[in-house]
Amino acid sequence: MGYKFSLVLSREVNDEESAILQGAIPADAIFGSDSLPTDAEITVTKMEFDDTVSPTLAEAIESALDAVKKVPDLGVPGLTVPAQPAGPEAEATAEDPTVLVGKVVEDDPPAKKASARKPAAKKASTRKPSAKKASDDKAAPVEAGAGTH
After folding, report:
1. What phi and psi, each to the nearest 5 degrees, are found at residue 140?
2. pTM for this entry
3. 11-21: string of b/e by CB count within 10 Å (b at 16+)?
4. Which residue has the higher pLDDT, 50 or 108?
5. Which of 24, 70, 77, 125 is the most exposed place for a label (fewest CB within 10 A)?
6. What gap in Å lies between CA 117 and CA 42, rounded to an integer?
7. pLDDT at 32 over 60
8. pLDDT at residue 14 tops 70
9. How far is residue 63's CA from residue 1's CA, in Å, rounded to a whole number?
10. Where in the chain does DSSP place strands (E)?
């Protein structure tokens, strides 16, 4: 399985620079002319990769970018990565015995609970306190009732 992607370089490369790039990358690359993504009037070199050597897509792209750094005054203003085919899971985990291969199975989603309403907060009373409560601080007068001397 190969990783396919393309790099748009910041300018056209000459034969000597092309040789440096081809020698620095482990993958097969096809060189062609293209235009700069930000200015169609500027002609640049586009490199199409089909990397069957790198273990991951990230490593394939990194090696291509590292190769571009070997050529002075050359940059990468464009990278295109089309959808990649999925590799077999067994191959990816055979190297690392600590990785378990399996299928994620979810139980039925939990039933929605009836929403419990919070009791309404009691509103603060806007009534004035009664005279009885206001006089609680003072000693209430005792009235003599019938039958007491």
Report:
1. -75, 140
2. 0.56
3. bebeeebbebb
4. 50
5. 125
6. 66
7. yes
8. yes
9. 17
10. 3-8, 28-36, 39-51, 78-80
